[in-house]
Amino acid sequence: MKTLLALNWKMNKTPSEARAWAEDLAERLSPGDAELAVMAPAIALPALAAHLPAGVSVGAQDLSAHESGAYTGEISAAMLVDVGTRYAVVGHSERREYHGESDATVAAKARQAQQNGITPIVCVGEGLDARERGEQVPYTLAQLAGSLEGVGEDVVVAYEPVWAIGTGKTATADDAEELASAIREALRERYGDAAEEVRVLYGGSVKPDNIAAICAKPNVNGALVGGASLKVPDVLGMNDALK
Ligand SMILES: O=C[C@H](O)COP(=O)(O)O
């Protein structure tokens, strides 16, 4: 299966900046072994769909758990599909923390994505407390079970320890593999043989100089990258490191 380099811009870049970034990438990207996907603010997705180089996917950072109707401010899966969206991040720790999203909400969003042909990237991961208690595996697996309720196997799982996000503290490649292998086992129980085809990503302070070691681990099939996704040279560096 192809390694996935998922670039999460978070709340950065206007549509004009997104277009310039995509044009710059298109000029400089030499295709590697990884699949690239850009998870941008929804308002920038049409510009990305029009200007990203061929083969680079468009992704959303969130979507509504509802199909359509009276949900002011929400963006539906069908709207995202209409502008060329292939992936959607759901349950990022920032949405869980700042927008009160529960595992049940995350699962509802993932189901909504799948019903419309979007592959959800379901995020899970422990905070510092659970890590310091040595409970990172049971904590993360409990979150995963709730977040995958009723969700089919066309899914990507991103393990992001909250203490490593945007802090410069990267989990070691062995830490990433510990959780990725536990997640794989849980996916086998849920999906059987199809679990081998589910990509498990690591996220948290991934950069050009650490991505190769992390993605070389047997159960890590890519990365979800925040800070290092904003500058084209960093993205080229990560893409090259995965060749
Ligand atoms: O979605 C991406 C993650 O939250 C990681 O962010 P970061 O690479 O800035 O630590």
TrEMBL record:
Pfam families on file: TIM
Broad class of enzyme this protein falls into: isomerase
EC number annotated for this UniProt entry: 5.3.1.1
Residues the record marks as active site: H92, E160
Annotated keywords: Cytoplasm, Gluconeogenesis, Glycolysis, Isomerase
Biological pathway: Carbohydrate degradation; glycolysis; D-glyceraldehyde 3-phosphate from glycerone phosphate: step 1/1; Carbohydrate biosynthesis; gluconeogenesis
Main location: cytoplasm
Localization in the cell: Cytoplasm
GO molecular function: triose-phosphate isomerase activity
Matches recorded under InterPro entries: Aldolase_TIM, TIM_sf, TrioseP_Isoase_bac/euk, Triosephosphate_isomerase, Triosephosphate_isomerase_AS
Stored PANTHER family: TRIOSEPHOSPHATE ISOMERASE
Family annotation (NCBIfam families): tim
Complex and partners: Homodimer.
Function: Involved in the gluconeogenesis. Catalyzes stereospecifically the conversion of dihydroxyacetone phosphate (DHAP) to D-glyceraldehyde-3-phosphate (G3P).
Family to which the UniProt record says this protein belongs: Belongs to the triosephosphate isomerase family.
Protein name stated in the entry: Triosephosphate isomerase
Originating organism: Deinococcus petrolearius
Gene that produces this protein: tpiA
